[in-house]
Amino acid sequence: MSRIAVLKGGSSLERQVSLRSGARVEDALERLGHDVVGIDVGPDLIRRLREERAEAAFVSLHGRGGEDGTVQELLEILDVPYTGSGVLACIRATDKVLTKHLLLEAGIPTPEFFAFTQAAFRELGAAEMLPAIAARLDFPIVVKPSSQGSALGIKFARTPDDVPAALVAAFSYDARVLLERHVEGRDLAVSVLDGAEGPVALPVVEAVPHEEDFYDFEARYEIGRTGFICPARLAPGTTERAQALALACHRLLGCSGFSRVDLMLDGSDELYVLEANPIPGLTDTSLLPQAAEAAGLGFDQLVARILELAFERAAGTPA
Question: Is-catalytic flag, 281?
C-alpha cells in the first residue's frame, strides 16, 4: 500500500465542505490499507509535502486555490501524482464564464447569459445595460459569481428590482459575475468516472429541495434540506441524452479521473448544461458518491478507483 497525503480544508469559502470531503476520503483510504496523512492546506503545504514524502496526493480541496489549477501546478512541480483533473481542465471548469463560452462554441446547450466584471460597472457604465439585459434574458434570472462552487454567492432575481442587490452579493465573492436565464425545471447532475475504455457517465441524480425552490448552498449541504433521487426517474431517452452531454463536457474541458456536470431539464424535456465541477465533493450529501453507489460502486471502491487513476496518469499508462 502507499503513503497518501489527503489535501483538505484550505482558506477558500468552501473550507468546511472540503474538510468533510477530506475526512471521508481519509477514512476510506485507511480502510483500504494505505498510510494516510491529512494536510489542512496552508502556507506550510510545500514543506509538509516534502517532509511527509507522500507517494500521491488525494485532492479534496474545493474552491479557490484547490480547484482552479493552483495546487495542481504545485504538485506537478513537486512531481507528486495527484487525483482529479490537471491544471488546464481545472482552470477551464472553475471559470463558469469560460466554460459557458466553450459550451456555446461546441454547440452544447447552455442557458443564455451575460457576464461583467466590476471594472465594467465602475469604469464603462455597464449598469446602464441592465434593462436591456433583463429584456433579453426575461425574469427570473440567476446571478452568480464566475468562479465559486457549491452554489456560493448565487442569487435568484425575480424582478428587475432584485438585480442590484444580487449583483452586490455576487461581486462580494468574485470580480466577475454571470447573469443567466433561469431554466425552470428539474435539477440534475451527471458524474463521470474514467474507465478502462474511456470516461463513463454514472446514473443521473436529481436534487429535490424540500422547502426552497432553488438549490442553494444550504440546500446542497445541510442534511435533510434536499431529497435525492438516483437514478432519476426520467422520460425514455432523457437519461441517455443527459449522460451524453456530461461526457461531452468532460472531454471538452479536458477533465480526467472524474467530474460532475450540472444540468437543468425544462418542461419541454430540453436539457441545458449549467456548469462542470472538476473536483466534486465527497461528503455524505455529495452527488458523485450517490451516483457511484447506484452504479454498484461503494464509497471505498470509488476512492480506490480515483487514486488508481492518479497513479496511472503519472505513469503514463491508459486508465
Answer: yes
